[in-house]
Write a structure and sequence with these properties.
By secondary structure, this protein is of the alpha+beta class. Helices cover 38% and strands 14% of the residues.
Length: 242
C-alpha cells in the first residue's frame, strides 16, 4: 500500500503520429521535475524511449513537451505544479508539429515559418564598416529588447490554437522575431518584413487569444508584438494606397 502511495502513474506518447500512450509506474520524489520522470522511464523502464533535453536548467528549451495538455519546459516544471496534487501525468510531444518518435517533435515547420516571416536580419553595414552605436534607451531598441530572451523552444507555437487550425499561420515566435527586427535600427529592410508578415498566414490571422503570452516560459509577450505588427502593417497599407 505504501509503494502505491509513492508512485506516479505516467502515460507517455509512444511511436509516431499514429502512436498511442503507454503507462508507467514511476517512483514519486519530493522535488521531481517532469524531465526527471521521463529520464527515469528511459533509464530504468524502457531505454528505447525517445526525447530531447540538453541543459536541464531552462536555458535551451529543447526539453519542451506537452504535460497534461499544456506546453511546458519539462526541466523546470515540477510534478506537483503540473499535476496539482494528483498522481497521474500525461506527457506527449509538442502540439502543432509532426512527431518524429515518442516525445521528439520535428522542429522544421517551426523554423521554416521563422524564415517565411522575414525574421532574418538585413544588415545596414558590412563587417568592414565601423559598428553603429545604438543607445539602450532608444525607443526602437527598447521595444526590440523585450523579446531578445526568446530561445525558440516552440512552447508558444504548440500552445497556439490558430496554428492548430491554420497550417499557413506563421505563429507567435516567428512574428515576435519579425517585430523585433522591425524595431531594430540596424535592420535595412523594414518593408520586406512588413510584406512577409502581412500576407497569407501573417499577423492578421492571429485571433488574439493570448495562449502564446500565457505559456511563454520566459514571460515574453508575443501577443503584444503581433499587435504591433498588425498596427504598422495596417498603417503601411493605407500609406501605399494614399
Amino acid at each position: 500500500m505504501e509503494a502505491a502511495e509513492n508512485t506516479l502513474e505516467v502515460s507517455v506518447w509512444r511511436g509516431g503520429e499514429d502512436g498511442e500512450y503507454q503507462t508507467f509506474q514511476v517512483p514519486a520524489q519530493e522535488n521531481q521535475t517532469i524531465l526527471d520522470v521521463v529520464s527515469w522511464i528511459q533509464q530504468y523502464a524502457d531505454p528505447t524511449l525517445t526525447y530531447r533535453f540538453a541543459c536541464r536548467v531552462g536555458m535551451c528549451g529543447s526539453c519542451a513537451m506537452m504535460v497534461n495538455g499544456k506546453p511546458r519546459w519539462t526541466c523546470r516544471t515540477h510534478v506537483k505544479k503540473a499535476t496539482e496534487g494528483a498522481d497521474k501525468i500525461e506527457i506527449a510531444p509538442l502540439r502543432n508539429l509532426p512527431v518524429i518518435k515518442d516525445l521528439a517533435a520535428d522542429m522544421d515547420p517551426f523554423f521554416d515559418k521563422w524564415v517565411k516571416a522575414g525574421a532574418v536580419h538585413h544588415p545596414t553595414r558590412t563587417r568592414d564598416d565601423a559598428i553603429e552605436t545604438i543607445t539602450p534607451d532608444e525607443p526602437g531598441r527598447v521595444e526590440a529588447a523585450k523579446a531578445i530572451e526568446c530561445i525558440n523552444c516552440s512552447v508558444c507555437y504548440a500552445g497556439c490554437d490558430t496554428v492548430a487550425n491554420n497550417p499557413d499561420y506563421l505563429g507567435p515566435a516567428a512574428l515576435q522575431r519579425a517585430w523585433t527586427l522591425y524595431n531594430d535600427a540596424k535592420d535595412a529592410d523594414r518593408q520586406a518584413i512588413l510584406d512577409n508578415v502581412s500576407g497569407v498566414g501573417g499577423c492578421h490571422n492571429c485571433h488574439t487569444q493570448g495562449s502564446c503570452t500565457m505559456y511563454c516560459p520566459n514571460e515574453l509577450d508575443p501577443l503584444s508584438a503581433i499587435a504591433g505588427l498588425k498596427r504598422v502593417t495596417a498603417q503601411n497599407f493605407f500609406k501605399r494606397k494614399g
